[in-house]
Amino acid sequence: MKTQRQQNRSALTNRGFSLIEVLVAIAIFAVGVLAVAKMQYWNTRNNTTGNITTQATMLAREKIEELKSLDFAATDLDLGPHPDPNNPIDENGNTGGIYTREWDVSDPGIGSNARQIQVRVSWTRHGQTRDIELTSITRGD
């Protein structure tokens, strides 16, 4: 059985938290939650930017492969710049997206049967214009 003195000492040591301690703990927790939320926002934004860049690269690659398969002798591949007739295009190459695709065919000066094909895909996001450019030299067929 506890004496009166032991009971009083027990009551003094089990007092709990003060209001200041609780407010400091909430402030520290809030700063941590805000940091995690900001990190999540930037991760989502960077993932979206990566997806858009990948889609633009695939559009450029698709067009370069299409142009490389054309026959030069039949003049299917005219020299000079060419805008995509479907501009602006979406990620599948259909009308109505955020991408603008154009290509330029030139003579690289390494032979009469060679062509340099340069495809550029550009888009604007968050007020900045970005582009992807792929270049290939081909001899046709």
Protein architecture, described:
The protein has a four-stranded antiparallel beta sheet, covered by helices on one side. The chain has one domain. It starts with a helix and ends with a strand. It is an alpha+beta fold and 141 residues long. The protein has helices at residues 4-13, 19-68; strands at residues 80-83, 100-106, 115-125, 128-138. The protein is 43% helix and 23% strand. The chain is rod-shaped, with a radius of gyration of 32 Å. Strand 3 and strand 4 form a beta hairpin.
Reconstruct the topology from this structure.
Blueprint lengths: L3 H10 L5 H50 L11 E4 L16 E7 L8 E11 L2 E11 L3
Antiparallel strand pairs: 1-2, 2-3, 3-4
Largest sheet: 4 strands, antiparallel
Provide a count of the helices: 2
Poorly predicted residue ranges = none
For the record, give the distance between the C-alpha atoms at the N and C termini, rounded to a whole number. 101 Å
The total domain count is 1
Proportion in helices: 40-55%
